[in-house]
Design goal:
- The chain is α/β, with parallel strands linked by helices and about 220 residues long.
- Helix content is about 25%, strand content about 30%.
- It is built from five helices and 14 strands.
- It has helices spanning about 35-45, 75-85, 130-135, 150-165, 200-215, and strands spanning about 10-15, 20-25, 25-30, 50-55, 65-70, 90, 100, 120-125, 140-150, 165-170, 180-185, 185-190, 190-195, 200.
- The strands form four sheets. An eight-stranded mixed beta sheet has the order 5-4-1-6-9-10-12-13, with helices on both faces. A two-stranded antiparallel ribbon has the order 2-3. It has a two-stranded antiparallel ribbon with strand order 7-8.
- The chain is globular, with a radius of gyration of 18 Å.
- The chain binds cytidine-5'-monophosphate.
- Cytidine-5'-monophosphate binds next to helix 3 and strand 9.
- Cytidine-5'-monophosphate binds near residues 92 and 159.
- Pathway: Cofactor biosynthesis; coenzyme A biosynthesis; CoA from (R)-pantothenate: step 3/5; Cofactor biosynthesis; coenzyme A biosynthesis; CoA from (R)-pantothenate: step 2/5.
- In the C-terminal section; belongs to the PPC synthetase family.
- One of its GO terms (cellular component) is phosphopantothenoylcysteine decarboxylase complex.
- Keywords: Decarboxylase, Flavoprotein, FMN, Ligase, Lyase, Magnesium, Metal-binding, Multifunctional enzyme.
- One of its GO terms (molecular function) is phosphopantothenate--cysteine ligase activity.
Length: about 220
């Protein structure tokens, strides 16, 4: 038998949303299901990679052969990514919350009965992808995702430069992609844009894993 294409390679993946606490019972979140990231983790493992999947709060089974690290917040995700290095490639699929509540309340915030509303102050979260791509333990291949609702390619191209990623996988989330089972993606690289037809998320994952194996070869 030929050796598996990704044998001996370590690939780091982030997936799912993050939850940013407001108080012990409330949080800021987003609609990421984690499906695409989990599918990519499974596909890479099937190609023989050692896969570390840093997952935000999602109710999905761990793909076969994948080492999963569960986190809740963006800052926990950043620390778990750092702890998983070094890696040959990183695929940052997580929909990391851009902001967290500044100084989450230690106790449940109560209505005071006067009809007054609390003010939520926000602080910016670390950009995990940009930190990794610009850091001194940068994986050889760094891939980011871009969920956009308009000007998908333009925004992805700008994001690639801004974040220092090798590839940005852009998808149009103006429809029912989030939580759905199919995805239409465009891969923006230094060489240009490659657009794939609408595919089930599992098929996107298999094809992307093969593309990653070719790039690391
Ligand atoms: O800037 P935007 O959130 O659109 O960028 C998306 C890409 O950046 C994804 O690959 C996502 O996983 C990554 N990201 C990150 N840390 C953040 C925000 C985004 O790693 N705080």
């Amino acid at each position: 038998d030929a050796p598996a294409p990704l044998a001996g390679k370590h690939v780091l993946i982030t997936a799912g949303p993050t939850h940013e606490p407001i108080d012990p019972v409330r949080y800021i979140a987003n609609r990421s299901s984690g499906k695409q990231g989990f599918a990519i983790a499974g596909a890479l493992a099937r190609l023989g990679a050692r896969v570390t999947l840093v997952a935000g709060p999602v109710a999905l089974p761990t793909p076969l052969g994948v080492t999963r690290v569960d986190v809740e917040t963006a800052r926990e995700m950043a620390a778990a990514v750092d702890a998983a290095l070094p890696a040959d490639a990183a695929v940052m699929v997580a929909a990391v919350a851009d902001w967290r509540a500044k100084g989450a309340a230690p106790q449940k915030i109560k209505k005071d009965g006067s009809g007054g509303t609390p003010t939520l102050r926000l602080a910016e979260n670390p950009d995990i992808l940009a930190t990794l791509a610009k850091g001194d333990r940068r994986p050889r291949l760094v891939i980011g995702f871009a969920a956009e609702t308009e000007q998908v390619i333009d925004h992805a191209t700008a994001k690639r430069a801004r974040k220092g990623a090798d590839w940005i996988v852009a998808n149009d989330v103006s429809g029912d992609v989030m939580g759905g089972d199919a995805n239409t993606i465009h891969i923006v690289t230094a060489d240009g844009v490659e657009s794939w037809e609408k595919l089930p998320k599992d098929a996107v994952a298999d094809r992307l894993a093969t593309r990653i194996a070719d790039a690391l070869d």
